[in-house]
Design brief:
There is one protein chain. By secondary structure, the protein is α/β, with parallel strands linked by helices. The chain folds into two domains: 2-153, Glycogen Phosphorylase B (Rossmann fold, 3-Layer(aba) Sandwich), CATH 3.40.50.2000; 163-349, Glycogen Phosphorylase B (Rossmann fold, 3-Layer(aba) Sandwich). The chain has 14 helices and twelve strands. α2 runs parallel beside α6, α7 packs across α10 (250-257) and α8 packs across α9 (228-238). It starts with a strand and ends with a helix. The relative contact order is 0.12.
Length: 350
Amino acid sequence: MRIIVNALSGNGDALMFSPALRLLREKLPDAEIDMLVMFKSVKEMYANHPALNNIHHIDFLKQPKLRSVMELRKLKTLEYDYSINVYPSNRLEYNIVNSLLGAKKKIAHHYIHTNPGRAEFVNDILINEVKDRHNVLQNIDLIKPIVNVKDEVAGRMEIFISDEDADIAKEWFAENGLTGKRLAGIHAGSSILKNHIHKRWQKEGYSDLIKYLHDEKGFEVLLFGTEYELNKEIISISGRNAKIASTLNFMDSIARMRHCSVFISNDTAFMHCAAALQLPTVAIFGYTNSRELYPWQTKNVVVRKDLDCSPCFYNSPRPAECRFTGAEEFKCMKLIATDEVIKAVDLLVG
């Protein structure tokens, strides 16, 4: 049997398929299971996953469309039995890709917020999206037409770090005088696609948090993500000697994150990576649905405001919007106080 998994979105969404991927391999030990990715960082994240036979990278965003179509036609010659669009993939383009792969059975979700223009009809098996169901379980639903599995065996998310990446991280800690130190990780940034810059908690809050972690808890603080200017500004405001820990190689970040004792993040891929690494995680949520996206199967505290309008963002190509304007725009994030995040940290690390 041949299966291809289309993990065309970012690292966080792709990572939440990893429990389903493990179950596919356990149930089908002799199958060829491949993955198609659009982002280099997703390829890096899955490069050492033992459940995969091959990872195919097509740069749909940057290369000419004709070249992408030709590469998909080449994959079609592999004659896959199943192709799976990882949840969430609520875009016309993702369904076109699934169609062009030409698998005997094409599996995807039927979304609550959709329309005929998304071309869900090109898929052979449609799984109903379920509101408030965690993304990990939505992905488990995608493999149920292939293998007999139950939600209870979903398991945790997984990232496999190579020995080389682990050694590079150890060298970095030694060079920066951090070996053996108590470490806290922070991701203060977010994607800016679809207006998701508004997922970010205020930089002043993160600066105050760095002071608390350093002065009161004795942590050395590492800032993650490629939002380098934001991270530098937060460190400058805090007046503490926090370190920027990320490089352009995604696995550098992951290998360093693994050494943290606690991780504080907006709703981003780094939050999900912290969960995969089994780090105690403080997750700061605004307009996205924490019931669907909380740190899966790790010790965590979600910090959010229970506003009547929140969560208001759902899986679709539409950008995040707020019904309020001016000072109240995205107040679901602005109203979160530093003391609330500090209290969450204390609940996790004492």
